[in-house]
Specification:
Layout lengths: L11 H7 L7 H11 L12 E3 L6 H14 L3 H8 E5 L2 H12 L8 H14 E3 L7 H5 L4 E6 L15 H10 L11 H10 L1 E12 L9 H8 L2 E8 L12 E8 L5 E5 L4 E6 L35 E5 L2 H6 L4 E2 L4 E4 L4 E2 L2 E2 L5 E4 L2 E4 L2 E2 L8 H10 L3 E4 L8 E4 L4 E3 L4 E5 L5 H8 L2 H11 L13 H5 L7 H16 L3 H18 L4 H15 L3
Parallel strand pairs: 1-2, 1-4, 2-3, 4-5, 6-8, 12-20
Antiparallel strand pairs: 5-7, 6-7, 8-9, 10-21, 11-17, 12-17, 13-14, 15-16, 18-19, 18-21
Helix pairs in contact: 2-3, 3-4, 4-6, 9-10, 13-16, 14-18, 16-17, 17-18
Length: about 525
C-alpha cells in the first residue's frame, strides 16, 4: 500500500486498490522514518535517499527533514542533491515534487528555489522501479537511505496478479528470490536492499504476511544475505482507512549492525529488544513479533515432527468445484466443512453451510453423481478412511476425528491420516495440542485473514512437534477422546481443559511455560 494522496473521480478507491496504493497515516510514516534514521550517519559527501514507490511523497518529505537534521545539512542541500523518488503514477509524482518544493525555506532566494526545483524534477521521476532500466535514470551510486510503502499486489488475486511476463521479469531482476505467488512488495524490498551503501538503512511498510508466507521466504533470505533486520513493528488492525490490510514495518541495515528493536500497535509501544534478529534459512520472521499479538515466547519443543506419525493432505480448487452437482441431501458420504469442525466436535447434524452457492443442512455427496469423473471418484476413495480433519483460519488447532471414514472434507480442511500402529486419538491429540497452537502462532502470525487466527498448510502442520512423554501423550489422547464423546457441553469443556494440561505435560514444558501456554489456549479456545 504505497502512500498516494490523490484520488480522482475517475479512479477513486478501486484504482488505488488496483495499484496496491492507499493512504499511509502520518504516524506510521514518522515511525518508519524515525526507526530507519535512529543512530544513522551518512556514508560520505555523495549520500542519497530514495523512495522507489514514492506516491505523493509522504515518505520523501519525512525522510528529507529527518536526514537533514541527522546529517547536519541544510534542507536546501538535501533537496537539491540527496532526494530521489520513483513512481509509475504521473499525478502522484507531480504531487510528490510539489510537496518537496514546499520544504524550501521562505528565505531562500529565487535562484536557489529554481535550482532546487530543477533538481527535484530531475530526481523524482515517473518510472518503473522494478525495471532493469532504472539505474540509467537514477544512477548506479548506492543509496544511504531507502524508505517507503511499496505496492501490495497479491499474486493470488485476479485483479492484482502480475502478468506471466511481468512475473518472469521480476524473478530475473531478483535472481529468483521473488517468484510464484510472492507479493510484489517483496520485489521492492529485495531491489531496495541491493541499492544500499555500506551502513545504509532501508525502512519499508510491508504486508504482514511477508513475515511468514512461504512464498516470501526467498525474499527474506535474499535481504539477509547482505543486511541485518534492525527494527520491526506490527499492529493487530489495519492502519489504512480504506482497506483491511494488516501490515508490518521492517528496517534493514546493510552490514555493521546487530540488535533488534521491536514495537507494536498504533501507539508504537516498545517491546523488549532482542540481541539479534532472524538469520538466513529461518522459516519465518514472525516469531520476532508474535509476542506483540499475545503469543507466549516459549522455546520450540524437542519432539519429533508430526510427519513421523501421520500424513497430511490439503485439497484444492479441483476437488471443490468437482463436487458441483454431486452435493445432495441424501447421499453416500457426509460433506464436512470448516464451518462444521470444532475442537473435538462436529456440527454436521445441525449447522447450515453454504457450498457452491447453495445452502445445506447435513450435506452429503452422491458417488453416483461423480461416476463420470474418475479423478473425483479416486479422491473420494482416498478420503473415505478413518482420519482427523483439521480446520484452518482458527484461533487454536481445531481437530475432529472421523472414526469410520464416513465423511469427505471440503476445501480448506486438512486431512490427517495416522501411520500404521498410531491411533487416531494419539494423532488427534498431537495435532490439537496447545503447544502446537502456540508454535504455529509463533511461526505464522499474520498468515491468516484474522490477526488472531492460525493458518497452516499440510506441510507446515506435519513439521509441528509431537509430544515427548508417551505416557502423558496417551493420557491427553484419552482426554481428547472423552471430550469428543461427551454428552454435554460442560463435560466436553472439562475434558478439553484436562486434555490441554496433560498435553503440556506430554511436551515436558516447565511449569512457568505450561502456565503461559494454558492461559493463551484457554483464552482462545473459548470453552463454555
Amino acid at each position: 500500500m504505497r502512500a498516494l494522496e490523490s484520488a480522482t473521480a475517475e479512479g477513486g478507491v478501486s484504482q488505488r486498490r488496483a495499484q496496491g496504493a492507499h493512504y499511509t497515516p502520518a504516524w506510521l510514516v514518522e515511525h518508519v522514518v524515525g526507526e530507519a534514521l535512529r543512530g544513522w550517519r551518512p556514508s560520505g559527501e555523495g549520500w542519497r535517499l530514495i523512495d522507489p514507490a514514492c506516491g505523493s511523497g509522504n515518505f520523501l518529505v519525512a525522510a528529507a527533514r529527518a536526514a537533514s537534521h541527522a546529517a547536519s545539512e541544510p534542507i536546501e542541500v538535501v533537496l537539491e542533491r540527496r532526494v530521489y523518488g520513483v513512481d509509475i503514477d504521473a499525478e502522484a509524482v507531480r504531487l510528490a515534487r510539489e510537496s518537496l518544493k514546499a520544504l524550501v525555506p521562505r528565505s531562500a532566494s529565487a535562484e536557489v528555489r529554481a535550482r532546487i526545483a530543477r533538481a527535484i524534477d530531475e530526481h523524482v521521476i515517473v518510472h518503473d522501479a522494478l525495471s532493469a532500466s532504472l539505474e540509467a535514470a537514477i544512477g548506479t551510486a548506492p543509496f544511504d537511505l531507502v524508505v517507503g510503502n511499496p505496492p501490495f499486489l497479491n499474486q493470488l488475486e485476479r485483479g492484482t496478479a502480475a502478468s506471466r511476463q511481468r512475473a518472469s521479469d521480476i524473478a530475473a531482476l531478483t535472481d529468483g528470490a521473488v517468484r510464484r505467488y510472492a507479493d510484489i512488495a517483496a520485489a521492492f524490498l529485495v531491489t531496495g536492499a541491493r541499492r544500499l551503501s555500506r551502513g545504509g538503512r532501508l525502512g519499508f511498510v510491508m504486508p504482514l504476511s511477508f513475515l511468514a508466507a512461504n512464498d516470501a521466504r526467498g525474499a527474506r533470505d535474499a535481504v539477509l544475505a547482505s543486511c541485518e533486520l534492525r527494527a520491526l513493528w506490527s499492529c493487530r488492525s489495519s492502519p489504512f482507512a480504506e482497506a483491511d490490510v494488516r501490515v508490518c514495518a521492517v528496517v534493514l541495515e546493510r552490514g555493521g549492525g546487530r540488535g533488534l528493536r521491536r514495537s507494536f500497535g498504533e501507539s508504537c509501544d516498545a517491546l523488549a529488544p532482542r540481541d539479534f534478529g532472524p538469520a538466513r534459512g529461518d522459516i519465518s520472521w514472525a516469531p520476532w513479533i508474535s509476542d506483540g499479538f499475545g503469543v507466549p515466547a516459549i522455546a520450540p519443543s524437542a519432539g519429533a515432527p508430526i510427519s513421523t506419525i501421520a500424513s497430511a493432505t490439503a485439497d484444492f480448487r479441483d476437488q471443490y468445484y468437482g463436487l458441483r452437482g454431486a452435493i445432495v441431501r441424501d447421499g453416500d458420504l457426509k460433506l464436512v466443512t470448516t464451518r462444521h469442525v470444532d475442537l473435538a466436535a462436529c456440527s454436521w447434524e445441525s449447522a447450515e453451510v453454504r457450498v457452491l452457492g447453495e445452502r445445506f443442512v447435513r450435506p452429503m455427496v452422491s458417488l453416483a453423481a461423480l461416476a463420470s469423473e474418475p479423478e473425483m471418484l479416486r479422491w473420494a476413495a482416498a478420503r473415505r478412511v478413518p482420519k482427523v480433519l483439521v480446520s484452518t483460519q482458527t484461533r487454536v488447532m481445531e481437530a475432529w476425528v472421523d472414526e469410520r471414514g464416513e465423511s469427505l472434507p471440503l476445501v480448506p480442511l486438512l486431512t490427517v491420516t495416522p501411520h500404521d500402529g498410531v491411533s487416531l486419538w494419539m494423532a488427534a491429540a498431537a495435532v490439537a495440542s496447545p503447544v502446537v497452537a502456540v508454535r504455529a502462532a509463533q511461526l505464522y502470525a499474520g498468515a491468516a485473514m484474522d490477526a488472531m487466527a492460525i493458518k497452516l498448510s499440510a506441510k507446515q502442520l506435519l513439521a509441528m512437534p509431537c509430544p515427548v512423554d508417551h505416557d502423558a501423550w496417551r493420557e491427553s489422547a484419552a482426554r481428547f477422546e472423552r471430550a469428543s464423546r461427551a454428552s454435554s457441553v460442560a463435560t466436553r469443556a472439562a475434558e478439553l481443559r484436562a486434555f490441554a494440561e496433560s498435553s503440556c505435560h506430554a511436551h515436558a514444558l516447565p511449569t512457568s511455560e505450561a502456565g503461559e501456554v494454558l492461559a493463551f489456549w484457554n483464552s482462545r479456545a473459548r470453552l463454555s
